What does this fold into?
Amino acid sequence: MNTPLPLALTMGEPAGIGGEITARAWEALRQGGPCFFLVGDPALVAGVPVAVIHHPGEAVARFATALPVLPLPLAVPAVPGRPDPRNAPAVIAAIERAVALVRQGAAAAVVTNPIQKSSLTAAGFRHPGHTEFLAELAPGEGPPVMLLAAAGLRAVPVTIHQSLRSAIESLTEERILAIARATAAGLRRDFGITAPRLALCGLNPHAGEDGTMGLEDRDIIAPAIARLRAEGIDARGPFPADTLFTPTARAGYDAALGMYHDQALIPVKTLDMAGGVNVTLGLAIVRTSPDHGTALDIAGQGRADAGSLIAALRLAADLAAHRLNQGNAA
It folds into this structure.
């Protein structure tokens, strides 16, 4: 499902694989779309024809014959595998520019190439990652929610970028409610699922076995589920995490909520590492990203797999079209 507007793709970490996979994604999509343009330094893209544009509106006409690039120069040339904090301001500016273009109605959605958080932090970046930064640039009505989508599975971590000890300590009924509500709203708004079914993982082995293996499932997660159901949200669980991701179980829900980062991300990456997509629900814009990092160890070697970026671009176009259709129907 394509949109009338192009997608804005950020350059990500210049020393990573972003340039490589961007070129390969253009080669795969240039005939059938969705159309996108890169916000970044044209020098990052090699081996394909490049068309420097000055406005997103130019991208559609150029896309079939050249990769459109809205130029944003780096401070210093990128060296594969060696991030340079001097380029961090340009990486951040690319994200800001892409978000602004979507909010202005010039682009349909933002797709982000992976960033190197350590490099950005060294340059003074104060956010744990993309999700938190985007929530500041394009806040929605609820909290930002990281949803990982792969073939046959959507998974959401209730707690994200924190240690396991910290995640358990911060797990509250109110936090689960906020993430579950935002997930249900996002599935309706962006995925077109009118009555989302949510399955919540238990925190402890066997979902706590009624308190014999931990109290969190009985005293925090189960009450949250009861409140969600009272609000009309089809939430179920808590289910043991070791059985929630089997093919039979996955057929019974639209999204699974893991209580901590790895509980949600491991099954997605196991099922479809090359095609998984990171979606941020709860923003004023549509945003997707490949479900992998900068891959500094293989940058510049021609070995990078563009499958996840291609999937992220296609899904971004679908989600933007769903939002547009909902807006037209309202």
